[in-house]
Write a structure and sequence with these properties.
heterodimer; A: about 600 residues; alpha/beta; Pyruvate-ferredoxin Oxidoreductase, domain 3; Rossmann fold; 19 helices; about 20% strand; B: alpha/beta; eight-stranded mixed β-sheet; two-stranded antiparallel sheet; 10 helices
Chain lengths: ~600, ~300
Amino acid sequence: MTGAPSAGGARKVSRISEAVIRIAGNSQDGIQAIGGFLARLAGRSEQEVMTFMTIPATISGGPSIFQVRIGSGEVLSSGDDADVLLAFYQHSYEGHINSLKKKGIVLYDSDHVQPKPEWEGDYHHVGIPISSLTVEAIGGTAKDKGKNIYALGLIAKMFDLNIPKLEKLIGERFTGKDPSILNNAMAALHAGYANSPSNLLETFQFVESQKKSGHQVVMNGNEAVGYGLIAAGVRFGAAYPITPWSDIMELLRRELPKYGGTFVQCEDEIASVCMAIGASFGGRVAVTGSSGPGISLKTEAIGWAVMAEMPLVIINVQRGGPSTGMPTNIEQSDLNIAVNGGHGDAPRVVIAPANVEDCFYMAIEAVNIARKYSVPVFFLTDQGIATRIEAFTEPDLEKVFQDITPDLTPVPTHKPYDLSAKDGVTQHVKPGTQILDGKYPIATGLEHDEYGHPTGSPKLHMQMTAKRRKKLQALAATLPLPKIYGPPEGNILLVGWGSTEGPIREAVDRSRAAGDSVSAIHIRHINPLPNGLENIFSGFNHVLVVENNDEGLYGYGQLAAILRARYCDAKIQGVNKTDGLTWKVKEILEHAKNKVRK
Amino acid sequence: MSQSVTEQPAASISVSTPPSAERKGLTKKELAADHPTWCPGCGDFSVLALYFKLIEKRKLWHEKITTVAGIGCSSRFPYFVQAHGAHFIHGRALPFASGISLSRPDLHVFVFGGDGDAFSIGGNHFNHTARKNIKMTYCVMDNWVYGLTKKQTSPTSPLGFKSKTDQWGAVDYPINPMKQAISAGATFVARTTHTNPNHVLQMMEAAMDHDGFSFIECLSECVEFYEGAFDASNPRKGGVFNEVPKSHDVTDELAAYKLANEPFPGYFGIFYKNTKPTKNAKEAEINKSFQTKVAGLKDWQILQKNFDRLK
């Protein structure tokens, strides 16, 4: 946030193109709500926006933050350092002052925060008795409720935000609730906006953003996955609640009935994957999903889906592991289980969206790959994408919506595992379909012949194992190579997957601005990989794979190990971290520098 | 959702099969697939034969039924039947079958399996499928022993049964399938035995006609590893076959529980039956109420309404 001061009155007004605002408090203070309003407002103002949040794993309360980065140009990550820190408590102030840029503004609730004199030189302190002013504005019953909206009013003033648009957003949020709640919220917003702290020496104005084509929609990754599945034609799902997957399950349970679909909450993770597979067998690709330990529990049934060649979509919102691990932190450590989890040679598809928009479109892609290749598809997101709010161009829903109602037209004959099929790609006829020669198929987990009947034949096991592999090799041939961000040749190529795309691209931008030769690719299709990555790698001296997972026994993260196994290329190295937080741009740069120096 | 198997499917699903009248009922020859792999004399043969008889008698079509099983000797069942079927993983046949039942109201799902599948590895699925009252017929061929893996203790093995995993005799108290089913909330609970074919067929027909989760425990002797286990229930072997008394009220849960508590050979017939709404019907009801609100909209327009709120 570096702005040019504009002429005007006593208080300086700076024109800025972007800002990073970090709101720190406790989870019950509604800081996610303020963050959400800011993000949505940015989307409606045709600005780019990205958020980052942490939530405690405890049942109620505990420190929590919401960071929002709003930009008039392209926003790639949620930002390393904040321009403004809004701190509700002493612990929020002390714990997050480090995330503030030098000379940044800390806006604190002086009812709860005692500023430290040693920090007053480094950061511009603006103390406001937010709690008591909120009570003053909306009455004694307010207590802790409403101070978030009061603070939103302060921020609106500081950044010259569009108040009528904010009012509209708040109005929509409280539709259908007791009208007194909306009245209180409006009162708090206006009181905050009207407050003009004498020691706030500067306010800001976003420069006009470039006009986007069409409208933007604003949502988080979990919502985008859920809506993508609906657009893809999925009408059945089954799951068990677990953080951070549960949001998707709740959305589908709520939305599917409108489309004549059903989402079932099962007794456990195993039942849910089995039920989804049963529904897929019934004729229409179904979805299950989970996080962490839930994924481990599903692996046996996924092996059946590979063997029986049954389409299925498994959403894995990754979290820190192993075991219960870190339920609300970011980690990309489930790639191995997604690619290899379970016993036997069991090839399946693994894809990973890189941002919220991807979550929508790649959910549709996952369904279509599952259908076309009759295979389970793992869809790997992580806590970083799941709860991140982004604005993206509104999809043309009429165009993307699919009808995948099963076709039950009678067929003369059917071999579910026809070995003569091109590339080994076969599809099942659905139950309810009359097969005129009277020979009906069995879907099975035993090694089988072409009709699905069990066999102990060594030859058939070899042929069927190859069939299950070949169809993924055929898929690989259709996959697009990732686009290179930056020049196709140079010193360092950063390789990422999942939620790290933004910070990696920003790392490329910063390095190039500093004169370093760095480019990046982001891999969305991980199993199978697209063909031809070696041609990209050959343009660089170093290939550094940036992942939120451990460097492993041999010094490579999970994707790095796959790439090394495939390309036997010693220049492929891992850049890893396991702190459970998103990559900061400066961390990527430091880690990369260290790797290259070694 | 509550139509019987022989009726035309729900309007929402288009099945372009000729009307039932034009097709002759299936014969045993048309229904038999692989030759069963069971040992000669196994009780499961009679269950299979009676399933064929049920299909013939009730004029079901290949494509209108789905046969599902887990793992075990009895779970080989789907391979022996010419109909759409699935041989799933150990203990999980019920959730798989639930996925079919809840997404395909036009099919009747029959699940076959053994006591290990139902009461050991899949025990919790049994409880929850029963309590949710998901429409299907579940026939457990109970032989009191693990046969496929060659004579280990099963959850229904009686105390003292000498198996390879309890060489001195089973020490764990067995599960009583009838009590388990009643207390889990199953809405149709019946008991039969493979040595009385007419009775097996009668129970299968009643189970199929029940709109809900219908459970049959069918004693099915393992001649290889537990010979003579059920002799006390077989008049030809000097035992007694006691039908559920005519005076028994099948809607009386406590009375059913008392019947289930009788020592072996106990009673045979329908112990319990009631008609509470199925999950299938309840979900259909939920869908109906939601769909009324979006009547006239295409699917994409329904989502568009959500997206309009996300701007």
